[in-house]
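For reproducibility, we list the full input for the zinc ion complex.
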Amino acid sequence: MPKAELHCHIEGAAAPDLALSQAAAYKVDVSAHIDREKGYLWKDFSSFLETYDLVASLFRTPEDYALLAETHYLGLARQNCLYAEIFVSPGHAGRIGCSYRTLIAAIAEGMDNALAKTGIEGRMIVTGIRHEGAEAVEDAARLAAKHPHRLVTGFGMAGDERVGHVSQFARAFDIAREGGLQTTCHAGEFGGAGSVEATLEHIGPSRIGHGVRAIENPAAVERLAETGTVLEVCPVSNLVLGVFPSARAHPLRQLQEAGCQVTLNSDDPPHFHTTLENEYRVAAESFGYDEDALLDLTCTAINAAFVDGDTRKRLLEKCVPGAIE
Ligand code: ADE
Ligand code: ZN
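The corresponding predicted structure, in tokenized form, follows.
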């Protein structure tokens, strides 16, 4: 099954073993957050974000980032993933003294190496962290707009959705759009349907990260369907973080049946003991998607990817040979 992914945080994609070896190299005590046997340790969304920040701080040099990116993409290629976007956070890198351009060049080197070895393509989404405040998110947007890079095609916002009001971040998204970037924003994960509606109103991104709690209000679902906003759904992340208590309660199918465009994503795979392949397996086994329906999800992701028209055609052709005249 050919796969594609739109929503994965590169700092959250490091395997615990890699994080532990980075911690040993930099002599950082991570024992409260990473266990050799159990992997990442956290108990709720807030402590997950703490562990996430700690892991991000273990990647400090261009070589660290290049290795992280190449390892991530090679792993995806082994799962027959044709295309994958990653969220990249200049705020995390800046704190440990890595400049924006160095960070992007290093990640691009890792992506290029993986492309040369396997054919897997990718793009970066520069990401502001909401709980760091509007100024920090605007700084990230300004960096992305000021220093264009062939592989940076999107701007997004992640972090704690419960902090601030989304209207405070509208300017950051304007800066990014003026810089030619496409947009996505986390909403409807730890915020309810109102957060999704406010994000559509104040930010108007072409995609929403998660968006699943739109299900709490039919008006929000209708708005998503009407605007064609694509949802980057991360089923296992939602289940493990307790956004929904069970697969039966998860609204993936309901949203799709209501006319929303949905895709499958792994978010922070090793933190949630998942992989992109596992997300497709869960969609088949717990949500009843058959092979055609899974392939449709891959095509939806490619159609919503932040790529130019020629790349999109090439990816669609790889995904469904003969589909494009
Ligand atoms: N950063 C990394 N993973 C995240 C998630 N699931 N929600 C918000 N911010 C994140
Ligand atoms: Zn996310």
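Residues 9, 12, 52, 158-159, 186, 189, 237, 267-268 surround adenine (ligand 1) (CB under 6 Å). The mean pLDDT is 96. Both points were considered when choosing residues for closer inspection.
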